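User: quick one, sequence for these tokens?
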């Protein structure tokens, strides 16, 4: 069992969540130490006890997104050994995560996050590539157990999978939430399955 969070860990988590909330409502360029501190309910100088500055907070935000994405992969692996149910569960987990946090598309796709910061750009790329790699592995397992067609290219299928999420997330974001991203995922899933399932050969 994980030890109880220290006061410092709890405060750092509050700060990261406040930064995500601020990005989600006002955009990346509105992010400031003063704005984060106000949302947490502390003075700006107190925030510097936990993070060196805004760049340090942004790096922590990226790490939180990576952790949540990969946690979803771990959880679907625990739910079922079968590739297609795993992929559907992962799809729905990710769209629910996006629907609950508008900041994620801002963070991953805004050049304001990594413009002038090659190391942070590489970190964003690493998050996306690692996530795609996990999807690809599930597809490969489906090919091995023959639930997924033998002629499917796993890397291509993984990008197609991501394609069910990202454009919808962008539409949902720019429409101020007036696009049902969860209903879209439910409707897109059968089309994806028809493309890759061995039952449709």
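Assistant:
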């Amino acid at each position: 069992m994980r030890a109880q969070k220290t006061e410092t860990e709890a405060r750092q988590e509050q700060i990261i969540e406040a930064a995500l909330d601020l990005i989600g409502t006002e955009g990346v360029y509105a992010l400031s130490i003063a704005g984060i501190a106000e949302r947490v309910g502390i003075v700006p100088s107190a925030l510097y006890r936990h993070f060196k500055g805004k760049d340090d907070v942004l790096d922590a935000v990226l790490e939180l997104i990576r952790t949540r994405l990969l946690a979803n992969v771990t959880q679907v692996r625990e739910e079922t050994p079968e590739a297609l149910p795993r992929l559907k569960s992962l799809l729905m987990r990710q769209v629910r995560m996006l629907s609950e946090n508008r900041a994620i598309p801002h963070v991953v796709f805004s050049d304001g996050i990594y413009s002038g910061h090659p190391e942070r750009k590489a970190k964003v790329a690493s998050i996306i590539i690692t996530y795609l790699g996990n999807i690809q592995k599930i597809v490969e397992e489906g090919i091995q157990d023959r639930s997924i067609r033998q002629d499917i290219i796993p890397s291509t299928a993984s990008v197609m999978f991501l394609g069910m999420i990202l454009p919808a997330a962008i539409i949902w974001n720019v429409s101020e939430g007036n696009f049902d991203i969860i209903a879209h995922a439910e409707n897109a899933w059968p089309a994806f399955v028809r493309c890759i399932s061995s039952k449709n050969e």
